[in-house]
Amino acid sequence: MSKILFVMTGVDYWTLADGTRHPTGFWAEEAVAPYEAFRAAGHEVVVATPGGVVPTVDKGSLAPEVNGGQEGADRIANALASIVELQQPIKLEEVDLDDYAAVFYPGGHGPMEDLAVNADSGRLLTLALDSGKPLGVVCHAPAALLAATREAGGNAFAGYRVSAFTNAEETQAGLADKAKWLLQDRLVEAGVDFQEGEPWAPKVVVDRNLVTGQNPSSSAPLAAELLKKLG
Fold it and tell me: Which of 8, 18, 101, 102 is most buried, most CB within 10 Å of its CB?
């Protein structure tokens, strides 16, 4: 049984362009679907956050309208409540990559606030990329890639094919005009080869050991790709 590291946001807000705090955290499906897939395959999951704080779920991600109705919403809430690892996170600052077979970053708007500028996360991502270990990042979590810079300059993920939450999706979600910056724009500026699919449809991109997904519906197929890489 291998250990898979979940690196998650430690904040419950996202600062908008006007300075107000938009309540957020991590997106439920993006933690639950991969967690269930990894556990079903016999792997152990360890959660890490900046400072070891217990991660906050984005309440919006528990709503019936994003879970296919009330039954789906109840299922995701119950599944989330059963993930004991979420209540016992380790400190991101103390993570040793050698302890893990793979690394996974679930999204939500939280990573736009903290992981996008977190140097410890940036170092871990660079190490994971260079190690050849399976590295999965979904939806808004690719914001964390922005902190992965090489000592010689430039982003560690420059030239990699990456998918992430798109400008079109942020616009349709009603937050694009309120954001300080848009994830797709920043990733392109960092030099990644951004892969954009249809809004809200599953899209997973594999480039070497890096597996990225565009949106919440991409989290389950992304987990399947990571499991393939784990063999």
Answer: 8
